[in-house]
Amino acid sequence: MAMAPYSTDKCGLIIVQSAVADPMNGDLQRMRRILAHELCHLLVREKSGSSQCLGDGLKDLKVRPCLDEGIAEYLSWRSIGKKNPILDKDFECIENLEEVDCFLNDFSSDKRIQAFYTSTRLVEFYIRELGLLTFFQSMTDLSERSELPTTAFGWSHKPVC
After folding, report:
1. Has residue 158 been placed in a domain?
2. How far apart are CA 89 and CA 65, in angstroms?
3. Low-confidence spans in the chain with pLDDT less than 50
4. Would you tell me which of 4, 14, 64, 143 could form a disulfide with 41, CB atoms 3.0–4.6 Å apart?
């Protein structure tokens, strides 16, 4: 297990269990991906001026959780040169991004994996349309949208889901 449970404009914290506590953490490639994922969360908070403390309900997160998780998943899998295996699954995207955000933080929901799938597909779509740097710089503005992008938002097509 690893997480970035605390971040402010001055510092951030990543907690990682040792391989003794979690034998899967002995896999260096897995740990590289997980650390890249958690570092990405810290970078998003830094860029957006967000802060977080574990248990605060993400109340000070200025980026929509699905974009935060989606970019962390996107970059972490690329950091090890592999494709995220969730993308090989046959899930439907959840159209309402408020629901996606809710399911991402509900560890008991059977729709949580579908929310991760939607987040990953959404971020891949934005990066394809905007480029990585422009997407990263636009995350706060894009967080104001509540539905998957459509032609109403000026896009030529929806994310592939």
Report:
1. no
2. 22
3. 151-155
4. 4
